[in-house]
Amino acid sequence: MVENRFQRWAGEVIFPLMGLLFWDWTFAFVAWFYFGDRFFQWGFNFFKKENPRFWKAQSLITLELLLILLLILQTHSPITTSLYSFLSYRDMGIPQGYFLVPLLLIGEVLKFSMEQRLKVFFLENRVVTLIKIGLLGICLSLFWIGVTNTQQIIAFIGALALTNLWIDLKKVPVSYK
After folding, report:
1. What is the DSSP string of the chain?
2. What does the pLDDT look like over 142-154, one tens digit per residue?
3. How large is the C-alpha radius of gyration of the chain?
4. I need a labelling partner for 55 at 20 to 30 A (CA). Which of 22, 39, 171, 176 fits?
5. Rounded (10°) angle between helices 149-170 and 126-144
6. Contact by Cβ (8 Å): 7, 111
7. Distance between CA atoms of 122 and 65, rounded to whole angstroms?
8. Short-list 13, 142, 120, CA closest to 67
9. The pTM is what?
10. What are phi and psi of 94, to 5 degrees?
11. Other CB atoms within 10 Å distance of the CB of residue 173
12. Whole-angstrom distance, CA of residue 156 vs CA of residue 50
């Protein structure tokens, strides 16, 4: 099995944490970043249709994407305004959408090309996805008790960090052939 530990930690924990600390990312911005990461993974999974676990993996990722959209809707009522804010957010004069979306896409392209070279296609472990879905549900419930934007981001990133820490400590296979 191929380890993608750095890609997981960078995409799910390090980049969003840096965005919170250095670039004043809002919760909706962090959620859109995570949504983009999972959306590109969902899209590239269609190249792996011959895998017997394909439809189960896709349905779980679809549920995760819907939960992320619900989280975004809790912070910004019109979802199109929130998406536009994500894509046009400017830092140092450059809209971040021009930087972050290609970065997410390149990550999936590199992962897919590595799988092509190895002649093995991996799909994410169902247990890992179910844990992430459960943690997203907990984050969704935090909105109803009225936590602040920063607390929401910390809870969201913390939940993803705990999931990745559990994966690494227990040596849980993140993906299967």
Report:
1. ----HHHHHIIIIIHHHHHHHHS---HHHHHHHHHHHHHHHHHHGGGGTTSTTHHHHHHHHHHHHHHHHHHHHHH-SSHHHHHHHHHH-EETTEETHHHHHHHHHHHHHHHHHHHHHHT---EE-HHHHHHHHHHHHHHHHHHHTT--HHHHHHHHHHHHHHHHHHHHHHT--SEE-
2. 776 777 767 777 7
3. 16
4. 171
5. 160
6. yes
7. 19
8. 142
9. 0.73
10. -115, 125
11. 15
12. 33
What's the distance, CA 70 to chain centroid?
14
Averaged pLDDT, 115-126: 72
List CB contacts of 90: < 8 A, sequence separation 6 or more. 96
pLDDT score of 2: 44
